[in-house]
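Students often ask why inverse folding is considered easier than folding. One informal answer: many sequences map to the same fold, so there is more than one right answer. In these notes we will look at a single instance of the problem. The structure comes first.
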């Protein structure tokens, strides 16, 4: 009597359902739908997709769409596990989540992203951040209470693009509040003069008080302290000055860079653990012009490329190199104004700049595009091309 034993399924575990992780999970599940030899499991703390490009809107009480991750995955064969990752063990090929469960993997896609860098004394205790929907909602409630009072000062620490968008959104939504934007650089540093001029004019029109060339040394319960010894009083502080990655990769023994990001090879595999792929903000991905900086513009392509690399490896083929070039930097300035700085592939500014209402429409199209892209990935046949052929990326218009 002959008996056969079905081969064990190859388990792919994707950590994080941000722009990069969700792209990896959906692309991989769509391309292996109906196969019995591979299973994709996606782990995320929330069952709704967080549109990080809209968190500054959530922080002012504006309603955004409820985008269900389980509904998106329905029909793909992928499994969704709600939980927060607490530990990764590459030796045992396991991941532990906050409810105590231990999940096993054969291939891991590490896409846990980044959070606000609150290393400045007092920032973690006294400042709001835009790390997720809960924190943004807490800030929205605080701003509403200040608005009902009829006055108040909101300090936005960090004059990068997130800080600029948040300051403009708060000032437009709550004109009765005083918004102060603080940072080492002037808004739009590194962009073309026309871009900076439009940013400056928009912030002035909205009444945002901009102070560049300053450094916040401490966040206090009632304001911030600056390096020159002065203090700026505030009823609420929003911290947007830089990001950091979670320490889980370093604690697991994965090779990381100085910022704790997983160092990858050209196919997005960990240089120390080839069965681990790193995507999005969590990865230190080197290109000819340097290491990618964390944006969802580059995050979604890394997720798609990781999925394609996994499939090529399982088929006995060498994965192709990941290549990416930036295309633009869109910045919203309230609901009806924006500026779009188009860029060279290395991120340096081109001469082309779009401003005003057309830029706002462009920015909204960019912001809204990831979810429909995920839906198209889900519906595509296994052999269908969702991203540039072969996983080679030159430029993308899809996200900020």
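Output (designed amino acids):
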């Amino acid at each position: 009597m002959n008996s056969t034993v079905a081969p064990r399924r190859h388990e792919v575990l994707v950590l994080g359902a941000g722009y990069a992780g969700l792209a990896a999970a959906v692309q991989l599940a769509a391309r292996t739908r109906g196969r019995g030899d591979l299973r994709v499991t996606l782990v995320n703390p929330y069952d709704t997709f967080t549109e990080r490009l809209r968190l500054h809107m959530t922080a002012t009480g504006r309603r955004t769409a409820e985008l269900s991750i389980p509904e998106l995955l329905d029909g793909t064969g992928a499994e969704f596990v709600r939980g927060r990752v607490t530990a990764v063990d590459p030796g045992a090929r396991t991941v532990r989540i906050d409810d105590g469960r231990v999940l096993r993997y054969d291939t891991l896609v590490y896409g846990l992203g980044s959070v606000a860098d609150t290393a400045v004394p007092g920032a973690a205790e006294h400042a709001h951040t835009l790390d997720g929907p809960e924190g943004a909602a807490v800030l929205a409630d605080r701003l509403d209470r200040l608005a009902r009072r009829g006055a108040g000062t909101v300090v936005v620490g960090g004059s990068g693009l997130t800080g600029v968008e948040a300051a403009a959104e708060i000032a437009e939504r709550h004109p009765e509040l005083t918004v102060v934007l603080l940072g080492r650089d002037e808004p739009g540093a590194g962009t073309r003069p026309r871009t900076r001029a439009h940013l400056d004019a928009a912030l002035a029109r909205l009444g945002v008080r901009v102070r560049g060339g300053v450094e916040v040394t401490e966040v206090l319960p009632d304001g911030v302290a600056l390096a020159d010894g002065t203090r700026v009083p505030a009823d609420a502080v929003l911290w947007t000055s830089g990001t950091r990655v979670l320490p889980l990769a370093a604690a697991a023994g994965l090779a990381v860079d100085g910022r704790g990001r997983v160092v990858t090879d050209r196919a997005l595999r960990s240089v120390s653990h080839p069965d681990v792929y790193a995507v999005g903000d969590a990865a230190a991905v080197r290109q000819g012009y340097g290491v990618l900086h964390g944006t969802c513009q580059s995050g979604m392509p890394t997720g798609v490329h990781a999925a394609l690399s996994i499939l090529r490896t399982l088929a006995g083929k060498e994965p192709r190199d990941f290549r990416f070039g930036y295309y633009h930097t869109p910045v919203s300035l309230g609901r009806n104004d924006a500026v779009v700085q188009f860029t060279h592939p290395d991120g340096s500014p081109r001469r082309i700049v779009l401003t005003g209402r057309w830029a706002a429409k462009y920015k909204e199209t960019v912001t809204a595009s990831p979810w429909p892209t995920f839906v198209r990935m889900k519906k595509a046949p296994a052999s269908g091309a969702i991203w540039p052929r072969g996983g080679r990326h030159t430029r993308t218009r899809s996200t900020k």
